[in-house]
Each structure stands twice: as structure tokens, then as C-alpha cells.
Hints:
Helix content is 0%, strand content 66%. The chain is mainly β. It has a five-stranded mixed beta sheet, with no helix packed on it. The protein starts with 6 loop residues before the first strand and ends with a strand.
Amino acid sequence: GAWPADAALDLRMAVGALTLRLPRSAGVRLTVTGFLSSFPAAGWTRRGSEYTTPGYAAAARHLDIALTSSVGGVTIEWTD
């Protein structure tokens, strides 16, 4: 459906895997904190524990995700 405004998510998981399906047109900022967490950072800009997609600042819509994980991994699937 239509995405009328910017959004923020606070995701917390203890153990497991997470798949994020994100719109390719959105500017995404992902802040990852955790003990043994993995994130596929290829193609993202990293500043400390914060990752942003290319063109984040110029995107019409923004999605800010705070992810806290103890043990697990994150997979990104882009949607059009």
C-alpha cells in the first residue's frame, strides 16, 4: 500500500534469524547492537554501529530501524 510518511522500527530478538523485506526506493538507516549478530553490510555506508543505504539523505521516504540482537543474523531482501 501507500507509504505516506517516514517510519521508525525498534526490533529486538534474543536468538534466531531475521529477514527484512525493504522497499528499494526508501532510504534505510539500520542501527545494530548485539553480542553475536551478523549483518550483510556490502553496499551500505557504515558509521560505528549505524548503516545507511546509498542516497539515504535524498530519499523521499525514510525507514529508521534499531535492531538489538543477542545471537543471530539479519538478511535483507529488497522489494520494488
